[in-house]
């Protein structure tokens, strides 16, 4: 059985902690998401696009996310439920 690669695990855990502290409002955790994406970008630069870490999006998805962020499409915002 192959070993599971957990590169960038501390970054992924920081996102989960932030989301929990902020009621799962992703827009409050931008700093941690950016840090994960930078860690994953470095991981792929060092190991190639076919590398795999359970903590990183696949290479192509990471490229898309980085492009979206460069265009200002940062994070999802929490929409408050309507009251009836």
Automatic annotation (TrEMBL):
It comes from the Eukaryota. InterPro entries: CMC4, Cys_alpha_HP_mot_SF. Keywords: Disulfide bond, Mitochondrion, Repeat. It is found in: Mitochondrion intermembrane space. GO terms for cellular component: mitochondrial intermembrane space. SUPFAM superfamilies: Cysteine alpha-hairpin motif (SSF47072). The keyword Chloroplast does not apply. Disulfide bonds join 8-39, 18-29, 40-56. PANTHER family: CX9C MOTIF-CONTAINING PROTEIN 4. Belongs to the CMC4 family. This is Cx9C motif-containing protein 4, mitochondrial. It comes from Spathaspora passalidarum (strain NRRL Y-27907 / 11-Y1).
């Amino acid at each position: 059985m192959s070993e599971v690669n957990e590169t960038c695990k501390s970054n992924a855990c920081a996102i989960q902690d932030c989301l929990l502290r902020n009621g799962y409002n992703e827009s409050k955790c931008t700093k941690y998401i950016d840090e994960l994406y930078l860690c994953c970008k470095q991981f792929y630069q060092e190991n190639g696009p076919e590398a795999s870490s359970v903590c990183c999006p696949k290479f192509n998805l990471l490229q898309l996310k980085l492009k979206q962020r460069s265009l200002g499409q940062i994070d999802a915002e929490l929409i408050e439920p309507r009251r009836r």
